[in-house]
Amino acid sequence: MPLPRESSGREKRVALARIRGKNPLTQKGGAIRLGVRTSHFRQGVIRKYREWLPEIPEAAIATIGEGDTPLIEAPRVSERIGARLFLKFEGMNPTASFKDRGMTVAMSRAVADGSRACVCASTGNTAASASAYAARAGVGCFVVVPVGKIALGKAVQVLAHGAKIVQIEGNFDAALKLSKRIAEELGNVTLVNSVNPDRIQGQKTAAFEVAEALGHLPDALALPVGNAGNITSYWKGFSEWREAGYSDSAPRMLGFQAEGASPLVAGHDFESPETVASAIRIGSPASGESALAAARESGGAIESVTDEEILAAQELLAREEGVFCEPASAAGVAGLLKLASEGRGPEGVVVSVLTGHGLKDPDVILGRARLPKPVPATFEAVAGQMERSMP
Ligand code: F0G
């Protein structure tokens, strides 16, 4: 075992004891302790990136340790797309989606402003995140959602955190219009959708983490696009990183919508958007203009992928990389596979953002798979079943 560089005397004694096969705890009658230290803990994005964010008084900070999510290399998918692919797994945030980064900023500022409640429209993840951060902040929370269109895990999160659910007989776009008006007219109620600039400010921190983890900016960033807040945030983050002098270039922004909900590709709103990727089932993206600007300014593009391509990418990530994301989150990888198959894929180092955890939407998996019939609890029956499906 190599000695740690610049290790203290105590650490050296512990390391030497380990090399000699002795238990360091019992050396010198237990006088030496194991060299376990807490060098790092999740302090949340506001404290980590304070100088990049709007001012928030310390006492108002509502954090559950969001951010600091892993950047995971994906060797098998890399081979297929002909570039070195990393996955920014945002499913590892406290409520299992990227929304937490913006929610901590929006909710903390709502507390600082003395809001009595917050409201949001949502396809599920914003609602789950707002519910958790409102609980943390001690602020009331109303979520307005399209009836029957929220993935099971997300609905369960809202219920668990005790937010008030308003189910409407309409889609996300109608829910957002209503939520905006409610925030304007009720007074002292903060809208925490990504049209709130504090959300964008918080979400841009993911771009900083990508830069820090790689040591440089990637050549391209691929991600799903729904209401278009996240692509706006990443582009803002990369642009600020470049303006601060940390990089000369910026990645191409490659945004992907689901074909049945692809207003930015078609050039017009969709009245009745439809896709298996319920998180991005949006027909009139609020930040559509800035998403198109991000694609244009970065030399990127906004394109669409089919539901089949999305589900195939979700399965590929789960089965070949061991990373389980929800369907919408796989749209970026689906897009990269599509571009590569047409000889238009980006080269170099590419990051795809996996925006939410696969556990959020169990029905998509259960709807396509069947559990095997039970067998008797005997060695023969269990071994027999295993032998029949041994690789
Ligand atoms: N991926 C997931 C898992 C999402 O939940 C969303 C948006 C997106 C991608 C798209 O991000 O809207 O910033 O372009 N979900 C919102 C919600 C709309 O209500 O949870 P976007």
Query: What ranges have pLDDT less than 50 throughout 5 or more consecutive residues?
Result: 1-19, 21-30
Sketch the topology as an H/E string, one letter per element: HHEHEHEHEHEHEHHEHEHHEHHEHH
Shape: globular
Largest sheet: 6 strands, mixed
Kindly report how far apart the N and C termini lie.
37 Å
- In DSSP terms, counting alpha (H) and pi (I) runs of 4 or more, how many helices? 16
Strand order of the largest sheet: 1-2-10-7-8-9
Report the sheet-strand fraction: 5-15%
Structural class: alpha/beta
Arithmetic mean of pLDDT: 92
Which bin fits the share of residues in helices? 40-55%
User: How many E strands?
Assistant: 10
Ligands present: ligand F0G
Q: What is the radius of gyration computed over CA atoms, rounded to a whole number of angstroms?
A: 23 Å
Description:
It is a single chain. With 391 residues, the chain is an alpha/beta fold. The chain has helices at residues 9-19, 45-48, 75-81, 99-112, 125-137, 152-161, 172-186, 197-203, 205-214, 229-243, 263-266, 288-298, 307-321, 331-341, 362-366, 379-388, and strands at 71-73, 84-89, 117-121, 140-146, 164-168, 189-191, 220-224, 252-258, 301-305, 349-354. It has a six-stranded mixed beta sheet, sandwiched between helices. The protein has a four-stranded parallel beta sheet with strand order 5-4-3-6, sandwiched between helices. Helix 10 (229-243) links the parallel strand 7 and strand 8. Residues 1-19 and 21-30 have low confidence and may be disordered. Residues 97, 122-126, 194, 224-230, 279-280, 326, 328-329, 355-356 line the site of ligand F0G. Ligand F0G is lined by residues 97, 122-126, 194, 224-230, 279-280, 326, 328-329, 355-356.
